[in-house]
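User: My collaborator sent over this chain with a note saying "see what the structure looks like." That's all I know about it. Can you take a look?
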Amino acid sequence: MDDLRLMRHFEAVYRLRGFSSAAQELHLTHSALTKSIKALEESWGIKLFHRTTRTVAATEAGKRLYPMAVDLLSFAETVKTETQSGEHILQIVCGPAIIDTMIHPAIGKFADRYPKTKINAETMPPTHAVEELIQRRIHLLLYNEATLSQLPHLDRLRVRKIIEEPYFVICRPHHPILKTGLQLADIVAFDWVIAGFDTLFETSLPAQTQALLKRHGFPKYRLLSQTACIDLVMGSEILTAIPKSVADPLISEGKLNGFPHPEDLQFSVSAAVLVDAASEPTVNHFIDCL
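Assistant: Without extra context I'll predict from the sequence alone. Here is the result:
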């Protein structure tokens, strides 16, 4: 436990780039924190920081230690939480469309094998989510493949494609868009609502497409719910794009009209886990349930 305490002190000094701010966060005196880091250095026989009266800079050893220290502290917190509660909690972060279409059916299948495992599924910006994954505060990321491919730390992730299907543009019946050529220039002339449209996905599009979207201020509305986007489309002239499997029943029931996205965009979902956590059985089974 003493090593964990020293590791928390090291992590704070590294992250905050100074002893004074770290001591304040940890509710320690400057002297006590200095002695703590010195004890860690002496115990391991390495120097972790270059110190002067004005600056604190990590040594190469300190730089190597930091990501492992974050992993260790996060894992220790998980062990503590799950030991105290006696329950395993599977933390999942994904895009809004994935929450609306894929998560709840998978939970039903997953619970048959792991009835005591709790699941928390939420959405957040992908760049934030991957940092949470790296620090082991979540177990699984589910995002569009184009988004995942542009995230940092790819060398530490194992990515597996789950599904790929076309996006359909949907609109209310008798919408004026249906009298156009249904090309990209036609559809972006109307107001759009998008569920979780993120900048990483946008930058994966062709440059000409990006320029056209920018000129039209696309999208006008962003919501963290695919269901809310569909409801908005039903009662207005706003457009959105959803996976074909979601669009098909709405179109067949006459609630909406739809057509393939003119840019042949794909709802291509991939799962990402840490490389060294890829054998975790509950995570793997949940991915299989998708």
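A starting point for your reply to your collaborator: The CA atoms of residues 2 and 40 lie 10 Å apart.
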